[in-house]
Amino acid sequence: MVYNLSKLKAPRMTGRALKIFTSVLESNFPGKIIIKKIMDDSGISYLANKKITEEPTYFPIHGYSTNNVDGRKDVACYVSTGDYLKSKYEIKKTDSFRYLGIDDYADLYKNKKITPIDVAENLLKIIDIENEGDSINAIIKLDKEDFLKQAADSAERLKSGKPRSILEGVPIAVKDEIDAQPYTTDVGTSFLGKAPASADAEVVRRLRDSGALIFGKTNMHEIGIGVTGINPHFGSARNPHNPKCYTGGSSSGSAAAVAAGYCPAAIGADGGGSIRIPAALCGVTGLKPTFGRVSERGAAPLCWSVAHIGPIGATPRDTALLYAVIAGKDKDETLTMHQPKPNLFPVDKQNIEGLRIGIYPEWFYDCDKTIYNTLKEAISKLKEIGVNIVTIEVPELEEMRIAQLVTIVSEMTTAMAPYDKNHRKDFGLDVRTNLAMGRSFTNVDYIHAQRMRTKAINIFSEIFKDVDCIITPTTAITAPVIPKDTLPDGESDLSLLSDIMRFAGVPNLIGYPAISVPVGYDEANMPIGLQFIGRPWEEALLLEIAGILERKVETRKPEVYRSPIPTA
User: Fold this and answer.
1) Residue 361 buriedness (CB in 10 A; 0-12 / 13-18 / 19+)
2) What angle do the packed helices 316-326 and 539-550 form, to 10 degrees?
3) Domain ranges (residues) in the chain
4) Pick from 286, 223, 287: which is nearest to 250 by CA?
5) Max CA-CA distance within the chain?
6) Which residues have CB under 8 Å from 74's CB, separation 6+?
């Protein structure tokens, strides 16, 4: 079998050249001719002309079995997410740097060493520092009065011995495409957030019910259609490991806020890698759950069939705790009603000896040399634990890439169509070029992509008969430096996007869960992420693997680290 995943190449454009190119692309002539050339070069025309016999799948909804977990364990090894939230966790002791997580907050509150009010006031001081110019631009909205009131209410519950959960008093940030009162939901644009949200999104409601403090709204790549984190309206988020570098996107601010220590976890959203990519580039953990596992109710309608809300955590444990709160059925969100009960493996029962991890070598090593070497070391650590590495082949990755691209861009273009007449030029330049492409897609293009989705699901279903999960890099490169000419208007760089997205899109297309966990650093001290893709509904296994692997690798303190806990 021939590895056929292509690397996109096109001239990089910024500034005046990009403005002219965007205007031309949006014109009838010669815009349509240029778009046709781009579609041919990017493979979209190739997919439209390919014979695919499968019926289309418009939503990747999966069945499930209650007979086993991952082929190694009986379901009795599971605990419910509710019990997991109550489970004890031995805080890692180390002389080197480690992130302070949700368990640290709970321990400090329990021993009355700090209160939620202290945390809230310290976070407001951190935001003041940001406003003075020393900013990673992660948090773009924070209502001080509301935040302090949340903290006071939480402190009172703790004082009276009635915490709602382990998340009581823990600050959690929310991506700005998800409704959270009293904030507007701008989705990274200059025009969508005209009024505060009328209600919390379902995931935010669950966080509040768990006692978490909603720590404002986080920056994002505009409408989630890019993966660098550049935003011309709110300013670009900066990577805490080096503020001169990209965060990745589109959940840029959520990953940056966690990596900088502002909060131990945040909510992101992932249509094509938008949780896992910034998590990898910022050195934290990000989980894209199975399609339909977490309610999308209250999220901006952007890309219905590939969208996944999920957690970003400082550690796999923090990610698991947030997942435990937000996962599960929502009677008012139909797509969540076809799932098994979400469960997790308690920390004291974690054991991945005998696990079969699939690697497609040509795909796995299609990355920067430093990442290649670091991931080889990670594989060695997994083998030492007792994991079995199984060589696999994944055919038609190029066709899957194109199908994912056509699907997400078509759906986002449709979602933004009502605003096109009055706000086309209010979008950033890179967004305008993508939407211009999307307007050229036909119903044939979209249906072919959904037929390819069915074929992709069938391919991976066969592969997972022989393995328990699949491993890839999260990205093919580490976070690049943001070129000066990129700001403030952004850039068009297909080669960069190809490197960032090479491994991320397939799990969205097929609706399988995937997690990124940090496993090392490059020569410039920038983080490297490793991705695990699991069977539908097996988030527990992915979090178990990530938790075990985390204990085998080094964590370095970011250049920008501002914890609201004074002892940090």
Assistant:
1) exposed
2) 160
3) 75-550
4) 223
5) 69
6) 68
7/115: higher pLDDT: 115
d(CA 73, CA 77): 7
What does the pLDDT look like over 111-162, one tens digit per residue? 999 999 999 999 999 999 887 777 899 999 999 999 999 999 999 999 999 9
For residues 542 and 515, the answer to whether their CB atoms sit within 8 Å is yes
Predicted local distance difference test score (pLDDT) of residue 62: 98
Beta strands of 257-387 (E only): which ranges? Answer: 265-270, 285-288, 308-313, 343-344, 356-359
Name the residue with higher pLDDT: 93 or 157. Answer: 157
Residues with catalytic annotation? Answer: 175, 250, 274
User: Cα(476)–Cα(363) distance, rounded to whole angstroms?
Assistant: 10
pLDDT tens, 314-334?
A: 999 999 999 999 999 999 999
The DSSP code sequence of 500-566 is HHTTTHHHHHHT--EEEEEEEE-TTS-EEEEEEEE-TT-HHHHHHHHHHHHTTS-----SS---SST
d(CA 340, CA 539): 12
Report how far residue 515's alpha carbon sits from residue 534's, in angstroms, rounded to the nearest whole number: 9
Sequence-separated (6 or more) residues with CB below 8 Å from residue 397: 3, 4, 5, 363, 506
Is the predicted pLDDT of residue 73 greater than 80, yes or no? no
Distance CA 269, CA 175 (A): 7
Give the torsion sign (CA, 436, 440, 442, 448): negative
Give the span between the Cα atoms of 110 and 133, in whole angstroms: 35
String of DSSP letters for 460-503: HHHHTTT-SEEEEES-SS-PPB--GGGTTT-EE-HHHHHHHHTT
- Backbone conformation region of residue 537, classed left if phi is above 0, alpha if psi is from -120 to 50, else beta: left
Token pair of 565 as six digits = 């806990």
Please give the mean pLDDT across all residues of the chain: 95
Q: Three-class SS of residue 344?
A: strand
Residue type, 370: T
Angle in degrees, CA 255, 381, 560, rounded to 5: 25
* 390-to-182, 355, 463, 533 alpha-carbon distances in Å: 50, 10, 11, 14
Rounded distance between C-alpha atoms, residue 262 and residue 563, angstroms: 5
CATH no. for 75-550 = 3.90.1300.10
